[in-house]
Amino acid sequence: MNPEKRHVLLLWMLVCSGMTEAIEPFSTSIAVGMAAALTGFLASYQNIFYYFNECCRPEWISFNKTGLEVDLESKLFGQHIGSRIILKALTGFMSNDNPKKPLVLSLHGHTGTGKNFVSKLIADNIYKEGMDSSFVHVFTSELHFPHSSKLDTYKSQLQQWIKGNVTNCERSMFIFDEMDKMQPGLIDSIKPYLDYYDKLDGISYRKAIFIFLSNAGGESITQIALDFWRAARDREEIELKDLETLLSLSVFNNKNSGLWHTSLIDKNLVDFFVPFLPLEYRHVVQCAMAAMKAKGLRPDKNVADQVARDVNYFPKSERVFSVKGCKTIENKLHYYT
Ligand SMILES: Nc1ncnc2c1ncn2[C@@H]1O[C@H](COP(=O)(O)OP(=O)(O)OP(=O)(O)O)[C@@H](O)[C@H]1O
Ligand SMILES: [Mg+2]
């Protein structure tokens, strides 16, 4: 029996079994023993409490680099650039005990290419509770900031949310979904938190992670992927440098990107612009195989091919990329299995 359990048991015996009444006279050694048991209990109680209740401690929050690497390798299809940047960015950031600023990633790409999916993989490999962790916060523009007339209210709410959550746990993760539906200017309200400040009002934001998700820039990414395809060049030859500048520029200049003319880009506060490539037929097949496996079915290549054949592709003439990426594959499987 480990010492913690022994302390708890001892105290339980003393308090709950009526032993205290039986011991007469009350000797000093018993008093000392009880005090030790009580101290032990309080210490163990705290540990037991931490064991069952998620809290901002390494027991609940620790980066599993190998786990993320394996997940990206085996679960995320067709995103060689995205996988590489994300692994590099998180490994660097999480292994630094004293980062100069929070990590800010901006994920861009066509619908259904894995932006939310990758955010989940990141959360799964940092927080024991994954996306269910109370330290992972998702903001969706249409849900949390629906009215354009309330910009000022949203700005201060957003600041309060971030401040409150980082005060509660410095290793908090914030995911801003549908950035392209966010009003221009709103995201600028959190700029101070993303910047190189040691502390703001006594709070350090430097260990937090911010992830922005959007379709903005997706067209430029698709264009490049299509150019490579037309030139019969391997998709894996596409490099970040082919896309990064183009991406940050197109996002900065797009009024509907949520990052339009934002000082976050001006001031280089976004650490990585991560392009998500549009998915091809073979990736849809992989998604279908993975979905069957996730449902507990034996992956069947014929079924996966059937699913992938029934998906729409663009451009219309060449049918290269899946219109919805892998987005509806899981639901489509119902019709085929
Ligand atoms: N590259 C991928 N590899 C593996 N599975 C994927 C990939 N892309 C999408 N999927 C599957 O499709 C589902 C939907 O993808 P996801 O929600 O991540 O798309 P998204 O990029 O966020 O799209 P949107 O821009 O429409 O929000 C995922 O839960 C996952 O099952
Ligand atoms: Mg999404």
From TrEMBL:
List residues of the AAA+ ATPase domain.
101-242
Residues of the signal peptide: 1-22
* UniProt main location, coarse: endoplasmic reticulum
Q: Which InterPro entries match?
A: AAA+_ATPase (IPR003593), ClpA/B (IPR001270), P-loop_NTPase (IPR027417), TOR1A_C (IPR049337), Torsin (IPR010448), Torsin_1/2 (IPR017378)
Which Gene3D superfamilies does the entry link to? Answer: P-loop containing nucleotide triphosphate hydrolases
What's in the GO CC field? Answer: endoplasmic reticulum lumen; nuclear envelope
What keywords were assigned to this record? Answer: ATP-binding, Endoplasmic reticulum, Glycoprotein, Nucleotide-binding, Signal
Q: Which Pfam families does the entry link to?
A: TOR1A_C, Torsin
What the entry lists under SMART domains is as follows: AAA
Q: Which GO terms describe its biological process?
A: nuclear membrane organization; protein localization to nucleus
GO molecular function annotation:
ATP binding; ATP hydrolysis activity; kinesin binding
Residues holding ATP: G109, H110, T111, G112, T113, G114, K115, N116
Compartmental location: Endoplasmic reticulum lumen
Membership in a protein family: Belongs to the ClpA/ClpB family. Torsin subfamily.
Put simply, this protein is called Torsin
Tell me what organism the protein belongs to.
Answer: Sander lucioperca (Pike-perch)
Q: In the UniProt record, what gene is named as encoding this protein?
A: tor1
